[in-house]
Amino acid sequence: MTNTMTVSPTSRPARSGLRTFLRLAFGAAAVLVLLTAVMFALWWMVGAPHESITLVIDDDSITIPGAAGGEWLLAIGGVLLALLVVLIVVPLALLVGLGVPAVLAVFGLAVGLLCLGVTLAVLCSPLLLPVLLVWWLVRRSNRRPPPASTTIPA
User: Which of 25, 30, 35, 26 is nearest to 79 (CA)?
Assistant: First the structure.
């Protein structure tokens, strides 16, 4: 006797939520590391501007002084931190802000329907007794008598 197990090609084991979350988190971290490397390479190739920048908006001028290399790296780090917040914290906040109230609303509706069902069962219980009696009588009349036992002479 051999033990065999048949696995269909479409069946796959269920994935846990933590495993999926960790894959997404490590993927986001890998993208951020790649972006950091690209920004650092661009800074290395082009170099940081040492001139001041003047922005003119509606006849108001804003002068931004030139930055050294370390300040540019801090600015890149700030941009990457903002990307991390946008990619991870904002979806989690939306999930908590919209998902939890939706689950609570569904739970509240389910509890209300359960209470309604129990109330209807209590109110309709006197009507159920004759129905159950008729069902029992019909079921009893449909039964066949047990077959007569036959004996085989030896």
Answer: 35
pTM beyond 0.85: the answer is no
Contact 84, 31 (CB under 8 A): no
Q: pLDDT grade, residue 40 (50/70/90)?
A: confident
Instruction: Write the pLDDT tens digit of every residue in 110-147.
Output: 999 999 999 998 888 888 888 888 888 888 877 766 66
SS (H, E, C) the chain: CCCCCCCCCCCCCCCCHHHHHHHHHHHHHHHHHHHHHHHHHHHHHHCCCCCCEEEEECCEEEEECCCCHHHHHHHHHHHHHHHHHHHHHHHHHHHHHHHHHHHHHHHHHHHHHHHHHHHHHHHCHHHHHHHHHHHHHHHHHCCCCCCCCCCCCC
Nearest to 52 by CA among 37, 65, 61: 65
Token code pair at residue 132? 């159950």
- In the predicted model, is pLDDT for residue 103 greater than 90? yes
